[in-house]
Automatic annotation (TrEMBL):
Classification via Pfam families: Orn_Arg_deC_N
Known cofactor(s): pyridoxal 5'-phosphate
Alphabetical UniProt keywords: Pyridoxal phosphate
CDD domains, sorted: PLPDE_III_PvsE_like (cd06843)
Entries under InterPro entries matching the protein: Ala_racemase/Decarboxylase_C (IPR009006), De-COase2_CS (IPR022657), De-COase2_N (IPR022644), Orn/DAP/Arg_de-COase (IPR000183), PLP-binding_barrel (IPR029066)
Identification of the protein by name: Type III PLP-dependent enzyme
Domain Orn/DAP/Arg decarboxylase 2 N-terminal: 30-275
Organism: Streptomyces zhihengii
Length: 412
C-alpha cells in the first residue's frame, strides 16, 4: 500500500499505549493532494468538497484554499461548515430538508440549493417569496445510469428506483415550478449518480448528464448555466496505491466544455479528497490461534473505524514492529503468515482486516490502518460498548513536527 509518511509513522510509534488508538491526519499530504486535484481540473470546473465524507474542521481549513466551496447535506453541516471555514460558499443538498433547515440556509446566504423533489420546490417557492435576491436552484435528477457504469459502481444512487433526486418523468413540472417562483432562479441540473467510479466511467456519466440537461433546458427555451456532476470518484481500498486519474478526468471535462462556452461544471467529491490523509493508529493487545487461524485483537475497532464493516472490505494496513516485551511470560505471536485483525467489540462483525500478510505479528506491535480519512470516524457507532474515544492528531501545516519515539525499542 502507499506507505505512511515518516511523520505519521513516527507519531504512531511515539504515542504511549494509553493514547492509542488515535486518528492521525497528515494535513500537508491533504493540502498537496487537493492542490493536485485542483490543478488537474480545467477552468470552468468548480471543486466543492462534500463535507459528509469528513467534516473535521482542520481538514476543512486545509482544503479551503483549493476548493471553490463546500457541499453540505443538513442544517447541522451547514452551521458546522460556516463556523469552520467562514465565508466559503456552501451548496445545500440532500433529501428531506426541513423548512427550518431551509430557513437557516437562506439566512446563511447559501450559494446554491439542490432541489430533491416537487414538494421541496413548492416549500422553497413559498419560503423565498419575499424581497431579496433569488435563490440559485439546481434540480437534482435521478437520471438513468448505463448498465455498464452501474455494474462498476460501489454505491449506485441513480438510475434505479431511489429516494434521491427528482424522477425524470417530473422534470418538466420541476422546471415550471422554479420558473414560476419569483424567489427562485434556475441555474441548472445536479446529478450525483454513483460512487466508486473510475475516470472514464465518470466522464461518460458527465457527458450523458450534460446532454440530458441541455435537452431539458432547450425544451423550455431556457439557458443552461451550470451542471453539478456530483462526486463519487473511486478510492480503491484493495489497491490503496492507485489513485483516481484526475488528469484524464480534467482533460475529458475540458473537452466537454470546449464546445459549450456558457457552461460551468461543478464536481463535489468527498472520499477521493480526504480518504488518503487519515490513519487509524493502534497496537496489538493479544494474538491467539483459533482452529489453525491467527487472530490479533487490537485496541479499538470498528466502533471507531466502521469503514471495513460497512463496505465489507479489508482496511489496508501497515504493521510497525515494536521490539520490546517486558512481561515475564512469552510474547503472544502469530504462528502463520496471515492474521485477521479484529477490535475489542463483542461482535463477530468487529473485523478490520482479514488474512493480513503479517508473519510473526506480536502483541505490542503497532498497526496503522490507512485510507481512514473519509467515512471513517464520523460514520462510526462510537458509543457501542463504551470504550474510550480515540485521540486526534494533526500533522503538518501549523501542527509542527511529530515528537520522537518514546516507546522503548520502537521501530526495531
Ligand atoms: C455523498 C455525496 C457526495 C460525495 O460522494 P463521494 O463518493 O464521497 O465522492 C457528493 N454529492 C452528493 C449529493 C452526495 O450525496
Amino acid at each position: 500500500m502507499t506507505a505512511p509518511t515518516a511523520a505519521v509513522r513516527d507519531l504512531a510509534l511515539a504515542l504511549p499505549s494509553r493514547d492509542l488508538p488515535a486518528y492521525l491526519y497528515d494535513l500537508d499530504a491533504l493540502g498537496a493532494h487537493a492542490a493536485r486535484v485542483r490543478a488537474a481540473l480545467p477552468e470552468r470546473v468548480e471543486l466543492y468538497y462534500a463535507a459528509k465524507a469528513n467534516p473535521e474542521p482542520r481538514l476543512l481549513e486545509t482544503l479551503s484554499p483549493h476548493c471553490d466551496g463546500f457541499e453540505v447535506a443538513s442544517g447541522g453541516e451547514l452551521a458546522h461548515v460556516a463556523a469552520a471555514v467562514p465565508g466559503r460558499p456552501p451548496a445545500f443538498g440532500g433529501p428531506g430538508k426541513t423548512p427550518d433547515e431551509i430557513r437557516s440556509a437562506l439566512r446563511a446566504g447559501i450559494h446554491r440549493i439542490h432541489a430533491e423533489s416537487l414538494h421541496e420546490l413548492r416549500v422553497l417557492a413559498r419560503l423565498t417569496d419575499g424581497p431579496g435576491r433569488p435563490l440559485g436552484v439546481l434540480l437534482r435528477f435521478n437520471l438513468p445510469l448505463d448498465p455498464e457504469t452501474a455494474r462498476g459502481s460501489a454505491l449506485a444512487m441513480g438510475g434505479t428506483p431511489s429516494p434521491f433526486g427528482i424522477d425524470p418523468a417530473d422534470a418538466d413540472e420541476a422546471v415550471r415550478l422554479v420558473t414560476g417562483a419569483p424567489g427562485l432562479a434556475l441555474r441548472g441540473v445536479h446529478a450525483h449518480l454513483a460512487s466508486g467510479l473510475d475516470a472514464p466511467a465518470l466522464l461518460s456519466v458527465a457527458r450523458s448528464v450534460v446532454g440530458w440537461a441541455e435537452e431539458l433546458t432547450a425544451r423550455h427555451r431556457l439557458p443552461l448555466h451550470e451542471v453539478n456532476i456530483g462526486g463519487g470518484m473511486g478510492v480503491d481500498y484493495a489497491r490503496p496505491g492507485d489513485r483516481f486519474d484526475w488528469t484524464a478526468y480534467g482533460h475529458g471535462l475540458g473537452e466537454l466544455l470546449a464546445s459549450r462556452p456558457g457552461l460551468r461544471l461543478r464536481v463535489e467529491p468527498g472520499r477521493a479528497l480526504t480518504a488518503y490523509c487519515g490513519w487509524y493508529a493502534t497496537e496489538v493487545l493479544d494474538v491467539k490461534r483459533s482452529r489453525d487461524e491467527d487472530f490479533a485483537v487490537v485496541r479499538g475497532g470498528t466502533h471507531h473505524l466502521r469503514t471495513p464493516a460497512t463496505k465489507g472490505h479489508d482496511q489496508p494496513c501497515t504493521v510497525l514492529p515494536v521490539g520490546t516485551w517486558t512481561e515475564p511470560w512469552p510474547r503472544p505471536a502469530a504462528r502463520s503468515g496471515r492474521v485477521t485483525l479484529t477490535g475489542q467489540l463483542c461482535t463477530p462483525k468487529d473485523v478490520l482486516a482479514r488474512g493480513v500478510p503479517a508473519p510473526g505479528l506480536r502483541a505490542g506491535d503497532r498497526v496503522l490502518f490507512g485510507l481512514a480519512g473519509a467515512y471513517a470516524w464520523n460514520i462510526s457507532h462510537h458509543d457501542f460498548l463504551m470504550h474510550p474515544r480515540p485521540g486526534f492528531h494533526f500533522l503538518g501545516t501549523d501542527g509542527g513536527p511529530a515528537p520522537g519515539p518514546t516507546v522503548p525499542g520502537a521501530g526495531t
